[in-house]
Design a protein that fits this description.
Length: 274
């Protein structure tokens, strides 16, 4: 167990150093520093605030933050502050913008049956932030010239504005399968470290697979669009959990407190056709 932890730490720090310094000799690679990653994330959060409706329930906003901070406490990236927001929308989705801005849609929250399932999605999204997947993806989409301007000479904030625009366009784009596998792997580890039963990740994936069978759009970063992919995620998650050996005692699902919160969610505004 200890060895696994060290290994995970090593993989994580390798990821981080790759992401921040870039592979040596690749001139096209410009690492966007954390301060600018956070600024881009803030810019995107401002855009999201303009277009999406924040759920007007302080108890839910505080609940999602409580669960989020539990995962943050055990995660490998604490150089930023994380923000958690519930959006009132029937979309079955969640996403993380660069810099630690994490969002949940009520459509997804309604599908969950316990707090550990929310922690599973939360830990997956936080893992994308920890491994800087979203900023890496954004940097690749920006291209070298814009990234260069952003880092070394942003005239009048134009490059920042462009970066935010590109980031918004990528919000629901797929991550690479490799990044998804990493987020799943770290996510399962983090949720367990935070005291949640990691088997909830499996029930969550199964629900997403069932929902994607109904051809609904925008399902959890549009991840579960194909069944083989979801089947692979479930198999990997089972393998991850099995590799942990006997799970430590006291891991929770948090069913009753979740159901209590779920009962506060507004009724769906419409039944999604198609
Ligand atoms: Zn993901």
């Amino acid at each position: 167990m200890k060895y696994r932890y060290i290994l995970l730490g090593a993989v994580c720090s390798l990821l981080l150093s790759c992401a921040t310094t870039g592979p040596g000799g690749r001139k096209s690679f410009i690492a966007i520093p954390t301060s600018q990653e956070v600024a881009i994330g803030k810019g995107m959060a401002d855009e999201v605030a303009k277009t999406e409706k924040k759920l007007p329930d302080p108890a839910w906003q505080s609940y999602v933050n409580d669960v989020g901070q539990k995962i943050v406490n055990v995660c490998d990236r604490k150089d930023i502050s994380y923000t958690f927001t519930v959006i009132e929308s029937d979309q079955i989705n969640a996403f993380a913008a660069p810099g630690g801005y994490v969002y949940f849609y009520t459509g997804l929250l309604r599908m969950m049956d316990n707090e550990a399932e929310m922690a599973a999605v939360m830990a997956h999204e936080i893992s994308h932030v920890v491994a800087r997947h979203s900023i890496k993806r954004l940097q690749a989409a920006m291209g070298a010239s814009l990234a260069y301007q952003l880092v070394f000479g942003d005239q009048g904030g134009q490059a920042m504005q462009a970066a935010v625009g590109i980031g918004m366009g990528l919000l629901f784009a797929d991550y690479s399968r490799q990044d998804e596998r990493e987020a799943d792997k770290f996510g399962i580890y983090y949720m367990q470290q935070a005291g949640y039963d990691p088997n909830a990740a499996i029930t969550m994936f199964e629900k997403l697979a069932a929902a994607s069978g109904d051809h609904q759009a925008n399902i959890f970063e549009s991840l579960s669009s194909s069944h083989p992919e979801t089947a692979e995620r479930i198999a990997n998650a089972k393998q991850e959990i099995a590799a942990e050996g006997t799970l430590p005692p006291g891991l929770v699902l948090g069913r009753s407190r979740y159901i209590e919160m779920r009962n506060r969610l507004p009724v769906p505004s419409k039944t999604t056709g198609k």
